[in-house]
Specification:
about 750 residues; globular; mainly alpha; about 65% helix
């Protein structure tokens, strides 16, 4: 296939995919579950207002939001999903209220009579009581009883520190006492919990499934998988098999060309290191520091799962609650991975063009300072927000937005976007002379520029929602950032950078590399862009979103089927010629990235992608398995590999004393594998069984999560964590050694 046809194919994929993503995103806006002006009882007494719901959403966000349990399945794993928890407790209270009204004790009734009351419960709780004329939701009397009781229950859980009845439960949930200090804030958060649960069980007008497609699963209230979940899950598997066969056929007929004669010496060894390229070194020092801090935050967060109010007896939750440590753990991962990739781009741009623009070094240094301000400022702001030291508006602007992966306040978001634009300008300035050349490398350079523009632009999707935007809309735009920015265009950027490096090393022909990268980008984005919808199956979105998400997310797995070939290819390149041994560990990182791409993104990713699977396991430890194996295993290890490539170029004249680097590589990868497979995966499997058998609420409950078996599995994470921490620490020691000299040997 010619390069021109591939460019046409890429353009068609981008235009058509984003058209679909935006068009059906419009359906999300049009079919939102309503936020009423007020919620009343059957007599017209106001229980809470729509503004209470919106403010309550902001209160929930201010305590950490998706880092303290989850809403609609999106969030952390120690505390429960509040919508599933509320729905279960609400149904229990309502069943007893219905039986009590008939002078009966529900718990003592025979099964057939209990079934009768359960049907009465379904008739009440699933009925859509929204009145569009008055913009009011009406709660039946049993539901009002449940609302009042649950307001007291959650108030005690989040506010009362000295109540012994809730002390153990708070510890199990890793929620400090007085998490919420203002009773008015608590009242509003109760309103938000009640409404978001109403969305989960209330049937859409004219339909038989709830706004969240009958999620969370709970047979007592009639939340069971709809036929659409089964239909589109089956279709996605069939499509995966068909497209995999086609890709293997294409791959067999279009083998990649390799240079017949390899260079006698390292082509990059004599690259002129410009001042701006040297200035990128400080970025990798910061990457190393962030790796250590992020690792420590992860250790603290993991320990909160077994000791929710302390760290080995130290009452750390008074100063660093689990919601803050988890926010920092996730946010720092994104920061150090992104920083390593951005610094790699700043290094490669002048190296490719051979041109150092005026004031380029100054721009690199300014960007470095700006990134430091965003990192430190956002972390401090998140702590201030969770500790309830900011008002709701100030928290949104400077503190904790409450959404996973984009926890940082809006001001820090804007400043980060400005930093990305500065980075893009610096890149384009340096690449401009190379882009003007009409040689065969211009296609790869053009794709590199497109990926760079996408990285700078698509983060802006996180600004498309406001402080009180409807949750379904906020989730739609949030996943533009998480899926398209982090998982999408960074992947394209990394693929292009890797191809550039191998071409400049003389290990790949530029023409075949260009064709391979363009084709891979088309395949990846064809499934990846519309596949964004697979995150939104149960986020109060219509069936069309579920169908598209299931179909195209399956296609995301197709390229990963043949990734073993890429891994083997990279491995053979590491042994192609004697001088390439200097790049052994950077190339091994690319090999490891291929392995984790297949296992973490492929196997573990597809295990939770089909709607019928995700219906039972969304937000369980199966999600954490995929998250750790994909985010760190793929993007983190790739970021480390890119960092090592650049550091190799910044120290061109000396051999590396890479014994520490070898230990670091193997300890990091083995530690991640042990952590995921020995602890997190078994926990997720047991949770999935509990969810299928007893309901989603039970799989996330303290009753189940703190059984002896689950606690033992949590402790079994320690060996893997130790190995991983040791590997990361040795990496940092090696990087420090490049400066001090202990990581360097004789002249090359």
């Amino acid at each position: 296939m010619t390069v021109r046809k591939l460019w046409i194919g890429l353009a068609m994929v981008l235009l058509s995919s984003f058209a679909v993503l935006i068009y059906f995103g419009r359906d999300i806006y049009h079919q939102l579950p309503p936020i009423p002006d007020q919620v009343t009882d059957e007599s017209g007494n106001v229980l809470f207002t729509g503004q209470d719901i919106r403010d309550g959403q902001n209160v929930w966000q201010s305590i950490g939001g998706q880092t303290v349990g989850s809403i609609w399945g999106h969030g952390s794993y120690i505390a429960p999903d509040w919508t599933a928890d509320y729905l279960h407790r609400e149904s229990v209270i309502m069943l007893h209220a219905l039986a009590t009204a008939d002078q009966k004790d529900y718990a003592q009734l025979p099964d057939d009579i209990q079934a009768m009351y359960q049907q009465r419960l379904k008739n009440i709780i699933r009925k859509n009581t929204f009145d569009a004329v008055t913009n009011t939701i009406i709660f039946a009397a049993p539901r009002v009883t449940a609302f009042n009781e649950l307001a007291t229950y959650y108030g005690n859980l989040f506010m009362r520190e000295g109540d012994p009845a809730f002390s153990k439960l708070r510890e199990q949930y890793a929620i400090p006492g007085h998490t919420i200090k203002d009773p008015e804030r608590m009242r509003k958060m109760n309103a938000f919990f009640a409404w978001s649960t109403w969305v989960c069980i209330t049937e859409r007008p004219g339909g038989t499934v709830s706004y969240t497609n009958n999620w969370p699963g709970d047979e007592t209230v009639g939340n069971v998988p709809s036929s659409s979940l089964h239909l589109w899950s089956g279709f996605s598997v069939l499509l995966l098999l068909a497209c995999t066969a086609l890709l293997i056929l294409y791959h067999a007929r279009n083998a990649e060309e390799h240079p017949a004669i390899l260079p006698d010496e390292d082509p990059l060894r004599h690259t002129v290191i410009t001042p701006s390229m040297k200035a990128t070194l400080k970025y990798f020092w910061i990457v190393s520091a962030l790796i250590i801090v992020q690792m420590l935050a992860g250790v603290i967060t993991a320990h909160y799962g077994v000791e929710g109010n302390a760290f080995y007896g130290l009452p750390l939750d008074k100063f660093l609650p689990a919601s803050v440590s988890r926010s920092w753990h996730v946010q720092l991962a994104i920061f150090w991975i992104a920083t390593s990739w951005l610094a790699t781009g700043l290094y490669i741009a002048p190296a490719v063009s051979g041109y150092e623009p005026k004031f380029q070094r100054l721009g690199v240094n300014i960007l470095f300072g700006a990134l430091l301000i965003v990192v430190v400022g956002s972390l401090v702001g998140q702590w201030l927000g969770v500790m309830q030291k900011l008002g709701l508006v100030d928290n949104f602007l400077w503190g904790h937005q409450g959404y996973e992966y984009i926890e940082l306040g809006r001001i820090w978001q804007i400043l980060l976007l400005v930093g990305l634009v500065i980075w893009l300008v610096l890149m384009l300035r340096a690449l401009l002379p190379a882009l003007r050349k009409k040689d065969e490398s211009r296609h790869l350079l053009t794709l590199f520029v497109i990926a760079s523009i996408a990285i700078a632009v698509f983060y802006a999707a996180g600004l498309m929602y406001g402080r009180q935007t409807h949750m379904a809309v906020a989730e739609y735009w949030r996943w533009w950032v998480v899926h398209l920015w982090v998982e999408g265009f960074f992947e394209v950027f990394a693929t292009v950078v890797g191809a550039f490096l191998f071409c400049r090393l003389g290990l790949l022909q530029i023409r075949s590399a260009t064709t391979a990268v363009l084709f891979s980008t088309i395949i990846f984005l064809f499934g990846g862009i519309i596949g964004t919808f697979h995150h939104l199956y149960f986020s109060a979105t219509p069936i069309s979103v579920l169908a598209l998400g299931a179909t195209f997310s399956a296609l995301e797995i197709v390229p990963l089927v043949v990734i073993g070939y890429e891994a083997y290819h990279n491995y053979t390149l590491s042994k192609a010629t004697p001088w390439i041994r200097a790049y052994k560990w950077p190339i091994y990182c690319l090999v490891a990235m291929c392995f984790w791409n297949f296992l973490g993104a492929g196997i573990f990713g597809f295990a939770i992608n089909p709607p019928i699977a995700l219906y039972y396991i969304q937000g369980l430890n199966t999600t954490a398995v995929h998250g750790h194996a994909a985010l760190f295993g793929v993007y983190g290890i790739l970021g480390i590999g890119l960092m090592l490539f650049v550091l190799r170029g910044l120290y061109p004249g000396r051999q590396w004393n890479d014994q520490l680097l070898g230990w670091s590589f193997w300890l990091t990868n083995i530690g991640l594998l042990v952590m995921v497979t020995v602890s997190m995966l078994p926990m997720g499997i047991l949770q999935a069984i509990a969810s299928i058998q007893h309901g989603y609420w039970y799989a996330r409950s303290a009753e189940f999560m703190h059984t002896d078996t689950m606690q033992t599995l949590r402790w079994l994470r320690v060996p893997g964590d130790i190995l991983l921490a040791a590997g990361e620490s040795l990496l940092v020691i090696f990087v420090i050694g490049l400066k001090t000299g202990w990581s360097l040997k004789e002249e090359r």
